[in-house]
Amino acid sequence: RIKASGLKMRLCTNETQVTRENFVKKLRLMGFDVSVAEVTAPAPAACRILKERGLRPHLLVHDGLVPEFAEVDKTNPNCVVLGDAAENFTYANLNDAFRVLMGMEKPVLISLGRGRYYKETDGLKLDVGAYMKALEYACDVQAEVVGKPSKRFFESALAEMGVPPEQAIMIGDDIVNDVGGAQQCGMRALQVRTGKYRPSDEKHPEVKPDAYVNNLAEAVDIILQQL
Amino acid sequence: RIKASGLKMRLCTNETQVTRENFVKKLRLMGFDVSVAEVTAPAPAACRILKERGLRPHLLVHDGLVPEFAEVDKTNPNCVVLGDAAENFTYANLNDAFRVLMGMEKPVLISLGRGRYYKETDGLKLDVGAYMKALEYACDVQAEVVGKPSKRFFESALAEMGVPPEQAIMIGDDIVNDVGGAQQCGMRALQVRTGKYRPSDEKHPEVKPDAYVNNLAEAVDIILQQL
């Protein structure tokens, strides 16, 4: 309905366990008519940064994400790219990434998101942000975060659409990463009361959405009504 | 020579991979005449805290340390005790400890030390502090650190000897954990220029030892000369 109305649309995700291709495949199976070109994700954003700065990554990411870095030179690494590696977060792999960082004069750590945790069917799992903090502390560096809530990440999504922030609206379930990040970029933001949403979000000390909606369909209703 | 001089002596260690028994065994093999009663270590200090506060730990520690917690009730845990678990720092074990913390109304995380890393023959390894930071961030809690540089840890070593801080001197190689920790407690502290010592320590922004010595034997010479 958004696309049929003529509005421009972009999916901003911090998904780093699969390629955009597989992410879109999943959404299409759910009935969403979306293409890879409509997805803004951390891995391709990181690839652009690596290319711009001549960085060759040591990857500590999920196996499913590796194809996103196919075109990147990974020989003789001069930075570490950290994603939600899940089962790849082994003691040996963490020590390997740590040693690569400690071997640099000025360690460069790029983190695909800074999520604290997420829930899967078998329970809560530590997200990439926890491992980012471990490496930051051990190496005494500050990671560069690519993905939500980074301002630059939202800006690149806007640039891809050719839309200024004041004409864009973010819809998301995460009070800090979706709503807070978009607002810092000058966009308005709706929080859906589904998914990650918790009633306590409505008393968040720093972030206040422009409005709440009960679900994604209601967000679309409201946006189309105002056209 | 220190003991023969009549001075009281205490070994303050952050060793959490083995029991005090095995730690002392290693030192005796190197020719040091020391007993378990002369060792102040994080695990027994943690056991006292657990007992005082009625805490039942979920342990994420090295297999070699588990016997130190033999007398502690570990059923239905209401806190997590984190040590340098080394190979036990698996993705599954970290998620388990995380879930225990998230299941508490007010998570209690006790960390045996806050070291960033250490070096073994096969290379640098992340130390307990890195994993402590990961769990702190994910759970939004602050760990209680038992061991150096915690003031309480030095105080318990002094209490065990019955010596006030101004009559005690610390000898150590770690500028922050040994020297800084002891000084905060009112003791004087010597830094040995061996082991962890790095020339850059002499320009440390916060900690300045009372004196430097080239090695442990020289520290003993100097102390005995002043008697």
From TrEMBL, chains A, B:
<keyword id="KW-0539">Nucleus</keyword>
<dbReference type="Pfam" id="PF13242">
    <property type="entry name" value="Hydrolase_like"/>
</dbReference>
<dbReference type="GO" id="GO:0016791">
    <property type="term" value="F:phosphatase activity"/>
</dbReference>
<dbReference type="InterPro" id="IPR023214">
    <property type="entry name" value="HAD_sf"/>
</dbReference>
<keyword id="KW-0963">Cytoplasm</keyword>
<dbReference type="GO" id="GO:0005829">
    <property type="term" value="C:cytosol"/>
</dbReference>
<dbReference type="GO" id="GO:0046872">
    <property type="term" value="F:metal ion binding"/>
</dbReference>
<keyword id="KW-0378">Hydrolase</keyword>
<comment type="function">
    <text>Phosphatase that hydrolyzes imidodiphosphate, 3-phosphohistidine and 6-phospholysine. Has broad substrate specificity and can also hydrolyze inorganic diphosphate, but with lower efficiency.</text>
</comment>
<dbReference type="Pfam" id="PF13344">
    <property type="entry name" value="Hydrolase_6"/>
</dbReference>
<comment type="similarity">
    <text>Belongs to the HAD-like hydrolase superfamily.</text>
</comment>
<dbReference type="InterPro" id="IPR006357">
    <property type="entry name" value="HAD-SF_hydro_IIA"/>
</dbReference>
<protein>
    <recommendedName>
        <fullName>Phospholysine phosphohistidine inorganic pyrophosphate phosphatase</fullName>
        <ecNumber>3.6.1.1</ecNumber>
    </recommendedName>
</protein>
<dbReference type="GO" id="GO:0004427">
    <property type="term" value="F:inorganic diphosphate phosphatase activity"/>
</dbReference>
<dbReference type="InterPro" id="IPR006355">
    <property type="entry name" value="LHPP/HDHD2"/>
</dbReference>
<dbReference type="InterPro" id="IPR036412">
    <property type="entry name" value="HAD-like_sf"/>
</dbReference>
<dbReference type="GO" id="GO:0005634">
    <property type="term" value="C:nucleus"/>
</dbReference>
<keyword id="KW-0479">Metal-binding</keyword>
<keyword id="KW-0460">Magnesium</keyword>
